[in-house]
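Record 1 of the preview.
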Amino acid sequence: MIRNHEIDYRIFGEEMQYVEVELDPQETAVAEPGSFMMMDDGIQMQTIFGDGSPQQDNSLLGKLFSAGKRLLVGENLFMTAFTNAGQGKKHVSFASPYPGKIVALDLLQLGGRIICQKDAFLCAAKGVSVGIEFQRKLGTGLFGGEGFIMEKLEGDGMAFMHAGGHVFEKDLQPGEMLKIDTGCIVAFTGGVTYDIQFVGGIKNTLFGGEGLFFATLRGPGKVWIQTLPISRLASRILAYGTVQRREEGSILGGIGNLLDGDGR
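->
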C-alpha cells in the first residue's frame, strides 16, 4: 500500500541547484529548516515535530525519543511541512546550501531504504521517514568520523538529497568492495554493508595525508559518491584565510594581496 504522498518534481541549475516540487491539492512535502526557497500562493507552511511519517511514534515519549535521535545526527528538532491547501497544482522549491548536485531518490524503486550522510537530506514527500542509522561494528563506531552515525530514509515515495561537487552513482555487484574516503560517501542502498578499514604501513600513516582510516562498501547495491565533501571545502577555505600565501611568489603574491585589499 502506498503511504507516501506522490509528488512530481523538476531540478534546475548546474552548480547551485534547486528542486521544484509540484503538489496536487492536499499533497504535502517536508523539508529541513533553511532549505526553503520559494512557493506559490495557496501553499500552507506548518512546523512539525519530527518528519510526520506513519512510522513515527506520536506519543510524547516517542516524539522525545525521535527528537533526541535527530539532535544526535546534528539535525533540527523540527521540520517544515508544505501543503497545497488551494485549488489546482502548486509549486514549492528547495535549494542546495552549497555548490553541488541534488539527487532524486525514488525509494519505491530503491528497496524502500537509503542510508545517507547526516547532512545530505534536503526534502521529501510526506510519509518518508527520516531517522538515524547506527553502524554496529566496533571499528566503525570508533573511527568512522563523518560516516559513524548516518541518516536513514525509509518509505516508498520521493526523497531528495544534496551533495558537494560532482555526484555520480556506482552499482556494486554482490561481494564487490569499494574503498572510499568517508566524507565522499553521499548515500547507499540498504543492501550495501559498510565498515571502516585501517590504512596499513608506517609511511602511509605518517606521511600519506589522507587519514588513518577509510570506508569499505560491499555490494550488492547502489552507492552515491561526491567529489567535494563540505568538510573538505570548509577546511581549505579556513586554511586559505588564516595562512599567508607566500607560495604565489614575491611579485605575484604582492599583487594578489593588493587586489584583495591586503596591502601589508
